[in-house]
Fold this protein.
Amino acid sequence: MTKRPVTIKDIAKIAKVHDSTVSRALSNDPNISDKTKKRILGIAKELKYQRNDLAKSLRDRKTRIIGLVISDILNPFYTEVTRAIEDQAQAKGYNLMLCNSDYNPRKERNYLSLLMGKQVDGILIFPVLGKDNNLKLLRESNIPYVLMDTCPQDFHANYVYTDQKTGAYDAVTYLIERGHKDIVLYTGPKGLTSSSIQMELGYCQALTENNIKIKKKLIYSTVLSEKDHLEGTTRALLEKQKDLKFTAILCISDIFAKSVYECAQQMGIRIPDELSVIGYDDTYICPNLNPPLTSVSQLKYSIGQEAVDVLLKEIKAGQNWQYQTIKFTPKIVERGSVIQLKK
Amino acid sequence: MTKRPVTIKDIAKIAKVHDSTVSRALSNDPNISDKTKKRILGIAKELKYQRNDLAKSLRDRKTRIIGLVISDILNPFYTEVTRAIEDQAQAKGYNLMLCNSDYNPRKERNYLSLLMGKQVDGILIFPVLGKDNNLKLLRESNIPYVLMDTCPQDFHANYVYTDQKTGAYDAVTYLIERGHKDIVLYTGPKGLTSSSIQMELGYCQALTENNIKIKKKLIYSTVLSEKDHLEGTTRALLEKQKDLKFTAILCISDIFAKSVYECAQQMGIRIPDELSVIGYDDTYICPNLNPPLTSVSQLKYSIGQEAVDVLLKEIKAGQNWQYQTIKFTPKIVERGSVIQLKK
DNA sequence: CTGAAAGCGCTTACAG
DNA sequence: CTGAAAGCGCTTACAG
């Protein structure tokens, strides 16, 4: 083992031709006779030649690798989008380098500079926002990128996102229509993701339109999405039900809703009778929860595909590219976790 | 955009030193005066220099990338192991290139040669077995690798695995102790994974030891784990309950068990009253299913960590490496999906 | 402590 | 159709 790998030179020596001829044979260059090509290909096969993409990429200034920065690989939402991205990238001849930011700007920054160092051709990212965000870093890199699940702001870039403001608005309206007034919005780290920001806007708008006073205490956010921590935060939230008298919770993800289910069960709070719950993302866990979880659905597969398409278009276009924005609208999938309150 | 990135040469020109001096400054080489080093670092920062790892890796013959080939990113088992692997790799200064084989030897082969082309330093793989397997390809590559979740055979390699034979044996014994005799083993593609092979062995052994006749028809396997397909296969299985009169199912993964839950619900089969179910992997979906799913638990995080450790040890050791095998033993986690049959 | 050179493995524009 | 050369951006053994 750890033998020196066979290179083009090795083949050239055996075939008694120049390296460049071997290269041409290997890369389907038309400027080569069928005869020598076949001979070289035969030798290459025999020696189990495997091209060194590092060298090729260095020379070509492209790697055919796309960097993907997601926030949490344990969240099925990201997993499903990742799957779509992988399929689409693969179909177009690109491969993925997957990174987990854990909603942590520092980790995100490290990964970004890793990806840049590796000379990826483009980056797909679910960015962490907030004051330490890395958007400028991205821009300065001169690598094409697409911001995912991020509502366009003044920052000029490609966006592929779902309108989470409308999602939250619809969900809260749905709850209000069923008699709920004291509704908790249970989101992730305050201001760190576009989703949490947008959902809060939608939440407030729905309440306001229905003349329901917005209570700060009902807008509840975790610090991180760490599993252990989530449990503690959820428990603390549910313990406040007696004081705050809320009857429903809209969660920023199905993962959060699942945590609510778990704590509620431990604490003897019955869903939906004593507490209605709406999840977000409509991941595969919803139907089998008890009761089945009503959730706001996003087109996870389409998001992934479109993001790849936009990115590859920019990569191909090069200099004169006009940023694109693709927006999806989410939709409530009704199941059994919301109850109609008696008047 | 698409400006030429700044290189060592650019810095050298400005600093009026040779490229090699810049390189030394940038890479903490002791052979450089503090003064010039500081000056160079300053310029590098100002120009936002970002090292081209392609060039460095080409020269160093190492990339600090580990290739990881899993079977299905939508299965939380792989996701949780991937997370552990990522953490551990990161801690040791390595990064991941993630690939999905989809239990498909051809896809696996493509990914393997991709990884080899990218000159990864090592490979962690949940291999697809069967006659088209790529084990020889791996061996010939001369890249260190670890076979994961694979019971050691005559093939000489590093292994990090869980003893699924014992897992299945224990689960079936558990069912037998509760009065079940007609037990289905619901596994993935026949012979394509070590788990399915080992589980079948454990299943048969448990039955035999209890003088229960093995019925071929009760050993049921899917062709692929595609979601749509899984649904159809599960439905077909459950439709046979009247004929085959089975009272329990041991599934190869929680995903499969979840599919059983879904179909059972649609078909009006009550779990566990009419059908007991045991899942496998003890993923996070178990506790919240209705009823909570009893599952065979594996140390997913440890598996991932150990695999990275073994791989990195081989990478460091180089030539004179002795293959290692690390074996874990699974354990049943009791919940509410198995009923005690009346005598 | 710094410079000049060679080389990692590949590709391609230029000759012939 | 083939060869010889230059270069992608970096690092390091060798001089001085």
Observations:
- The CA atoms of residues 179 and 342 of chain B lie 7 Å apart.
- Chain B touches chain A through 53 residues (CB under 8 Å).
- Chain B has two domains: 8-51, 61-343.
- DSSP finds 13 helices and twelve strands in chain B.
